[in-house]
Predict the structure.
Amino acid sequence: MRGLSDIVWRAIGGLFVVFLLSPLVLVVLFSFTSRAQSAFPIESLSLRWWEAMLADPRFPGAFWNSVIISGTVGVLSAIIGTMAAMALARLEPRRARPAVAMLCLPLMVPPLVLGVTLLTFYSKTHFPMGRQTVIMSHLLFTLPFVVLVVFARLRNFDYRVVESARDLGASPLRAFFTVTLPIIRATIVGAALIAMSLSLDDFVITFFTISGGQTLPIFVFGMIRAALTPMANAIGTLILVMTIGTTLIALWLTRYRG
Amino acid sequence: MREHRIRALLLAPATAIFFVLFVLPLAYFFVISFWRKVLFAMRPDFTFVNYGQVYDQHLATLAFTLALAFIVAVLTTTLGFIYAYIVRFKAGRWGPALLFISLITMFGGYLVKIYAWMTILGIKGVLNTALLALGVIDEPLSWLYYNAGAVVVTLVNFSLPLAILPIYASMRGITDIELEAARDLGAGGWRSFSDIVVPRSRVGITAAFGLTFLLSGGDYLTPQLVGGKVNMIGVQIAAQFGLIFNWPMGAAMSFVTLASSTLVAVVALSLFSQWRPR
């Protein structure tokens, strides 16, 4: 009886894993097909679509835009988010919690609405649109994640070590850089990487705020709309490798162990 | 006093971003929803014409969108609950691996997943070619694709991690001691499930439902790419900022969507908080 129910639960779990992972696995698989369609059977493996991607004149611009945007978003949201989390962690929970919830509000608004709102705002204020507006807009939805992660880490932080540094004459800044930062560095870097992968993956908000430029997701979107060639799989796989890669490093750094 | 000033300084950049790039743009967006489009410009005004048009022209689309988002949210939350339940109580040493998979799929590939479902469900897609090769069907099934079902499957697929994680987070707080105590007091499997597991997961279930409902109600790429003629309000909003070029109208539609989906979510969740499984 016990054995049977175990098997049933395991089978259900297996179905879930197939449902979650098969779309991603298929995209990776089809990026190596030698055929001109994303379909089975894959006759032979080839790098044809990867070469086509690298040879595409739009690729370098899209790639570097993605790298520059997500890198800047990662660094900025790590700094700004950590500062906010440090201030909030020192408040009593009764006052800190509403403030954290407020900073998370942009996550409850659909990206489409955020995107068109920001587009309207930038165009009203005649703010020049491009990479800079994408970076600013991404901060809106990456900051809450950084604040949440660093705030959670600081909840079980032993402030006595900072106080002893201060008693020994260290300035607040010095105490931060020599004591606090080394202790929470891994968490901050992890949070920055999560912010990077969210930024790398974003299509909707980027689409409305970049004004004509390309990033990798926008490049894929163009390909999907034009024709379903397996080259979209190669770009998609590249996006997956970059986002999942940074997520993995982030999980490892924040000591995620299940 | 000094500490107060340091705290204000530390919070300044995050608060500035929140107000300048979130509150202010939304406020301006709300204002222009009362403006009018004249030729290719927006003219300041104070008119409810746009809201009237949302009611006249887009009410059916909005109702359909809310219904579809509701189905997606119920499905996603239920599946997310089952997944979290397996991770917490049934998977044993495989639990961490399952949780890990849901974390990985959360951060990667919104557009990639939609694209993948296009290649899975299409006429010449993976599912059809597989079924043809196996001899299950003689000609490709056309009803897999370009309909509401395909939109639901795709939305559930990429929202599922968003539901799993908050529900698991609240289930993690349930200790084995509580469950053993319930069993020692004579509670059966169903009783301890309905009296301990469900109530203790309520916070996570609420977050999962709210998030997946609001986000799938505002999605526009999924219906556009796998939905064919399926018309969701997001597609109509995006069109106001593309070809139709009527920003005041798009603003009015956005606020009606935000307000009505928040209302539906709040009503659904307050009904759920009354519900006691027996």
Summary: Chain B is about 75% helix and 0% strand. The radius of gyration of chain B is 23 Å. Strands of chain B lie at 36-38, 41-43. The mean pLDDT of chain B is 89.
